[in-house]
Write a sequence for this structure.
């Protein structure tokens, strides 16, 4: 967990299907409130669609260098109170599995969700939690800073 970084530069080496499968499995096995599993995942390999998604991202102009993007889609009807929590955990679980396989990801949160949702064919009861570009890191950045434990912990 301490080694993981958000990766924003990828090599051209394709991500093998068995690795994608393991990342999807990590998402599938995520916990969720009342085990509702209010999610589905869209694996995007179409380079043209990835380019269009890249344009919909606010801080994601590197997405088009990824050979695969996984969209994590929440079902608002299935878990109206919990869908963001549940699918955020899916995303992190996928990020950690990818990292364990030597594959970089970056959570894309800032995007035009209407545009990206239309590109992906989402329904009105669905929410696009994130799109995760996947690829082998072209470079691994140094760690970003973290608050010190004594700044964020109290005991009662
Ligand atoms: C909810 C969320 C939304 C994020 N949105 C973006 C984004 O739109 N674009 C981006 O480049 N990084 C995004 N990030 C990545 C963060 O910037 C990154 O996790 C943070 O700077 C810490 O760096 P690290 O992941 O390398 O530890 C997002 C991360 C989270 C958890």
């Amino acid at each position: 967990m301490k080694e993981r970084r958000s990766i924003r530069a990828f090599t051209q080496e394709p991500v093998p299907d068995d690795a994608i499968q393991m990342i999807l499995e990590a998402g599938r096995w995520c916990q969720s409130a009342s085990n509702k599993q209010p999610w589905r995942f869209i694996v995007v390999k179409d380079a043209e669609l990835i380019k269009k998604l890249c344009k919909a991202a606010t801080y994601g102009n590197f997405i088009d260098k990824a050979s695969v993007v996984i969209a994590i889609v929440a079902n608002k009807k299935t878990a109206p109170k919990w869908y963001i929590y549940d699918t955020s955990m899916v995303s992190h679980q996928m990020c950690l599995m990818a990292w364990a396989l030597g594959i970089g990801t970056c959570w894309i949160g800032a995007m035009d969700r209407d545009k990206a949702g239309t590109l992906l064919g989402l329904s009105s009861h669905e929410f696009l939690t994130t799109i995760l570009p996947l690829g082998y890191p072209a470079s691994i950045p140094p760690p970003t800073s973290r608050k010190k434990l004594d700044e964020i912990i109290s005991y009662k």
